[in-house]
Design a protein that fits this description.
Blueprint (H helix, E strand, L loop, with lengths): L2 E5 L3 H13 L4 E5 L7 H9 L4 E2 L4 H5 L6 H7 L5 H9 L5 E3 L4 E4 L5 H14 L2 E3 L6 E5 L2 E5 L4 E4 L1 E4 L11 H4 L5 E7 L2 E3 L12 E9 L5 E8 L3 E3 L1 H9 L1 H6 L3 E7 L6 H15 L14 H10 L13 H13 E6 L1 E2 L6 E6 L17 E3 L13 H16 L5
Parallel strand pairs: 1-2, 1-10, 2-6, 10-20
Antiparallel strand pairs: 3-5, 4-5, 7-8, 8-9, 11-19, 12-15, 12-18, 13-14, 13-16, 14-15, 16-17
Helix pairs in contact: 1-6, 1-13
Length: 406
Amino acid sequence: MLTIAIIGGGAAGFFAALSAKQHHPDAHVRIYEKTSKFLAKVKISGGGRCNVTNATFNQRLLSENYPRGEKFLRKAFEQFDAKSTVDWFESRDVALKTYPDQCIFPLANDSQAIIDCFWYEARKLGVEIVLSQGVEGIKCTEKGFQLHFKDSEEIVDRVIVTVGGQPKSAGLQWLADIGHRIVPPVPSLFTFNMPQDPIRELMGIVVEKASVRIEGQKLIGKGPLLVTHWGMSGPAILQLSAWGARILAEKQYQCSILVNWLDDEKEEALRAHIKSILATHGSKMISNHNPFPMPNRLWLFLLAKNEIDPASRWHDLAGKNLNKLVNTLINDRYEVKGKTTFKEEFVTAGGVDLADIDNKTMESKVCPGLFFAGEVMDIDGITGGFNFQAAWTTGFIAGVHVGKLA
C-alpha cells in the first residue's frame, strides 16, 4: 500500500490530504501536526469567520493578487481556481456568501463550518490525523522517505510538506539540508506603527477609499484605511505591507508613507472640486461643510494639522492655506516606526524557492516523490482570501499528483 505523509495540519495540509485520498483511495494518507490542534489558523482567520477565497474568477486577474508567486500560480489555477473552491465547498453542503468587496465567507459566518467540513471529509475518506508529532528531519532513501521525529523514525513512500510560513529560515533548514533553496522569510500583511503621532487620537475611524505609498517607491496600497491606537491598518495598509514586504524589511520598518485620503484623486481634479465648492458653498464654515468622503473627525484633524481656523469660511481659503490643504488631502505624510504582526495569523514572504518546484504537480525538482503546498513555498497573497486560495490550489494539485509516480 502506498503511504503518503502530510507534514502540517493546517489549511494546505488538510486540503492536500483530502485530495490525495480522493484521487488515490487505496493509499494510506496520514497528517502529522506538531501542535495539539489542527487547522488553528483557519479557526481564527477573518475574525473567526474564515475568508475562504475571493470572487475573482478570472485566473489571470486572480494571480495578480500575489506579490510572490504570480506566474507560478497562474499555471496552477488552470487546475484549481477560485470557482473550483466555491464548487468544492458547496458540493459538500457548505453554503458560502460573497460580500461587496468580493471576499467569500461561509454563510454561517463561522470558521467552524470549514473545520467541520474538513473533519467530516477526513473521517469519511479515512485520512489519519496524528497530533503533537512534529517532523524534525527528512531523508531520501531507496525505500522512500525517512521521517525523523523527536523519539522515533518512520519510512513513507511520498511526502507533501505543508508546514506553512516560517518566521525564520532556521524553521526550514531541514528542507535546505536535502537540497532545497530557501528564500529568507520576512513578514507580510502587517500594520504600521506611528508612536506619538497625533493621528492615533482618531483610533477607530475608517476612510473607505484611500491609497498609500512608501515615499520614494512606486508601490501602492488601495482600499479602506483604519486608524488604530498604534497607527494605521486596514486593507490599504495590509496590501502595501505585502507588496513592500522586502523593501520594508530592508528599511527595518522605518520609513515615510504618503496617504491620499481621496483614493486616487489628482491635484488638478481636487483644485477643480474646491473651486466648485467656493462657487456654491463659499459662505459656509469650513468645519461645518466637509465635502469629502471622510469622517468629520478626520476632516477637523486635517484642518488643525494645517492650522486652518475651523470657524473660517470656504471663501477665506486661499493662497498658502489652500495649497497646504490640497497637499494634505492627497499627499499626507506620516512616519512609520515599526510594525505590528498578528502572530496567530502571520503571513510570510519567503520559503522554498519556486524554482525548485514544478507548478504543474507541486513536486520537488530536487527530491522526486516530495511535494509542497501552501505558504511553505515562496508564495503569499494580499488580504481578501487569496492566501487560503493558494493553499487550496496547491494542496489540491499536490494531492492529485502525489500518487502518480511509478
